[in-house]
Write a structure and sequence with these properties.
The chain is built from 1 helix and no strands. The protein is an all-alpha fold.
Length: 44
């Protein structure tokens, strides 16, 4: 069995994926807020 050294794993792919997830989540949240504001303005 191979020896594992703590902290030797390359995490660049995971970090890139996480950054994409955060960016997509931010865009979705902003779009949802924008839609809610639009709906409130049209309804009044």
């Amino acid at each position: 069995m191979a020896d594992h050294k703590h902290g030797s794993m390359d995490t660049k792919v995971q970090e890139k994926t996480f950054d994409g997830f955060i960016k997509a989540s931010t865009y979705v949240a902003a779009a949802a807020i924008g839609i809610l504001i639009f709906m409130a303005l049209v309804n009044s």
